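Run RNA polymerase sigma-54 factor through structure prediction, thanks.
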Amino acid sequence: MEMMVSQRQTQGLAMTAKMQAALRILQMTAVDLSAYLAEEALENPCLEVSVPQALRAVPTGVAGSGAGSDFDAVAALASDKPSLYDHVLRQIALAFPDPRLARVAETFAEALEPTGWLGSPPEAVAAAAGVPISVAEAVLARLQQFEPAGLFARGLADCLRLQAEDRDMLTWELSVILDNLGMVAEGRIDALAELCDGTPQDVRNALRAIRGLDPKPGLAFAATEPPILPPDLRVIRKDGTWAVELNRSALPAVKVTEAPETGRDTAARTYATRARSRAQWLARAVERRHSTLLAAAVCLVRRQGDYLDRGPRHLHPLGTEDVAEELGLHASTVSRAVQHRMIETPRGTVPLRTFFSRAFTPGSGEDGPSQDALIALVGDIVAKETPARPLSDAAIAAEAKAAGFALARRTVAKYRDVLGIPSSYDRRQNARISA
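Sure, done. The structure for RNA polymerase sigma-54 factor is below.
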């Protein structure tokens, strides 16, 4: 065998320490940013930081990514009111001794819905945590082993499957049923029995076992009231258009000062020079954070003006990739910039992510309706029904079709579940009880 030596030139992007720090600053909340800068100011004589009064009493890390490694997120929560977040953080502290993986796990915890399901896909969490999707998937697999079983599920079927595995009752037949829950909702028991190579009675027995599982394990925990924080941004009507501005009163003020006199001490002069350089870099990084956040918010408000004018039913399909393309940024940068950011609007203070919405029909672009708009439509139709004669899912689908939107009955059922609206039978029973 002949050995050969060759040269090859490649290009790649290496994440420097300053780039990593800038990304961390970008995704910090105002609370965490204030804590981070205040800690820097203690060690840097060239940096002055003024923390807003509204943020001084708020523990860092509760509402965001956490600025310091010494912060105990569990200890900051009310001990007399256990919450899902408290419960999960305690398990994370035991299961993830590696600080890097623990931060990824905490990012997943921040994405938990009150039901215990994940409110964001793993891809979005990976982007927010700044790790490859393979790392995020590995962390999620470990999180899905937490107690009670069913936490961190990606949906109803996933939640029930995790609980069935935990109880050692997940057979092939049960797995097939969980993969086809839509057929159960449609009453197609015979067709489902054929898929399972069983009888309709076998399917009914399996469904009885499934009904013994908890579809929303997170609701067993008390809901902890989040700290009330001032919004990061405001949108106001100005000269007939929507204008966005940063809420500077909720942001720490950074000032770079002159280095102290060091005389002829070379070591002290070197230290002072580095301190001033560090302070100048921090000031620029903070300003870039603010400008990126403002640019993303302006883009979102401009493209979702109909939402501000007419409500959730008029949200257009819009993703982080669309905003990133317009701003000339990476999608992960946009995701970091808008995460945990609140914006004050005439419709109330809402998360900035409210302005994002997936298309109902993939690939339809901005021309088609968004999922959030159709979810709001289902809510509006139910709100207008006669309580004593609630509409069935099929009737809601017919109403939606009359409004120009074709929804399948199972889609209506899914959206109704997202809104927390009971079935027509349960609504009828509730109306009788209230009468």
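Confidence is low (pLDDT under 50) at residues 59-81.
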